[in-house]
Amino acid sequence: MSLRTLPSSERAFATFVVLALGMFLAGGLAFAARQEHPAAGAPPARPRLITVLEGVMAPNTNPAQVAVFRTWVQGGATREGFAPVEAIVANNCASCHGDGGQYPRLTTYEDLRPLALEETSESLYATIGARGLHLTAFPLVFLAMAILYLRRLTWPGRHLLMGGCAVAVLFDATLWWMRQGHPGTAWAPWAALGLLAAAYLAAAGFVLTELWRRPAEGLE
User: Fold this and answer.
1) What is the pLDDT of residues 15-67, one digit of tens each?
2) Cα separation of 35 and 117, whole Å?
3) Model pTM score
């Protein structure tokens, strides 16, 4: 059934779903953007780096080593103060988080500083995590949009629009995966997030237009 022929109640519900998906995506993009560019200023009250060291990484570190990390974080996580942290990381973390390890690289100043400046959060997006957002949540948002609404557009270019959304999702997921341990070009993640936002805005715009645009007189 075409979106134009839906009853008013179903069109209202479809509008709610489109806006709800958009709000979730916007929140996820904002969270991902903060991950890419931690806020400057005073160190966070609960740095994610310290939370991880005192949590899942506790068996691999002792309190004295955690204190070294804490001192570095409280000092602003500067490059000048990184040497003591680097020595601990080389001894305790490099086997798994170094180049060629089974986990993303977390051994250099560039790798650890964002974690040192990121506030531990209990939000939904923090629970999902960056990996879950880029590899699962964002693709599912666009998949739901395509299955529920985009395929039902009467606009002849709907397949092109769906293809553009797929490219945006694949570009973001691939870029995120490739950048783990290899920060690469600074503008690349912003381009990926911007492409996701633009793709969803275009898709939502076409869907909402078709939902609520009344047929021209004489064509009904």
Assistant:
1) 999 999 999 999 999 988 877 665 545 556 678 788 888 888 888 889 999 99
2) 9
3) 0.68
Give CA torsion, residues 127, 131, 137, 139, to 10 deg.
180
CA dist list (Å): 165 to 97, 138, 151, 178? 33, 11, 12, 20
Sequence-ordered alpha helix ranges (H) in 63-186: 63-74, 83-92, 94-97, 109-117, 124-132, 138-148, 158-178
Cross-strand partners of 47: 119
What token pair was written down for 26?
Answer: 């916007």
pLDDT tens for each residue of 70-89: 999 888 888 899 999 999 98
Amino acid identity, residue 137?
A
Nearest to 133 by CA among 119, 123, 146: 123
Beta bridge partners of 119: 47
Q: Per-residue DSSP letters for 56-68? A: TTGGG--HHHHHH
Task: State the amino acid at position 202 in one-letter form.
Answer: A
Q: Count CB-CB contacts under 10 A for residue 107.
A: 18
CA distance 86 to 91: 9
CB neighbour list of residue 166: distance below 8 Å, 6 or more residues apart: 142
Structural contact between residues 35 and 118, judged by C-beta atoms closer than 8 angstroms: yes
Estimate the share of the chain in helix, then strand, then coil, as percent rounded to the nearest 5.
70, 0, 30
CB 21 within 8 Å of CB 207: no
CB 207 within 8 A of CB 149: yes
Rg (CA), the chain: 22
